[in-house]
Specification:
single chain; alpha/beta; Rossmann fold; 48% helix; 4-stranded parallel sheet
Amino acid sequence: MKALVYIIFSSSDEMREKLENHRNKVFAYCEKKNYIPLVVFEVTGPKYIQEEIRKTKILQLAKRRMIDVVVLSDLTLLGRDISEDNRLIEILKRYSVKIDCIHEKA
C-alpha cells in the first residue's frame, strides 16, 4: 500500500529534538505493515499551516489515487475539530484511503 506519513511538531526545537526518533518509529511501523511511504509530510508551525496541508495536500493525493493510507502517530494529529476530522475521514473513504494510527505502548 502506498502511504502518506504525516508527522507534526509544535515547534522547530521540538522537531529537531525528536524528529529522527519519531521518523524511525514511523518507518518501522510502515515496514511492519507493508506500507510503502511515498510521501512524507514533516510539518512544524502554526495550526493553520498544518490544517492547510491536511485539507489540501492529503485530499489532492487521495483524489489522484496516489496514496492508499495516511499513517499518523495519533488520530488527534488530523485536527482539533471532530466534525471536520470526520468529514475528512469520510472523503478519504470514498477514495479508498484509510487512516492508520501507530499505537505505541506507554
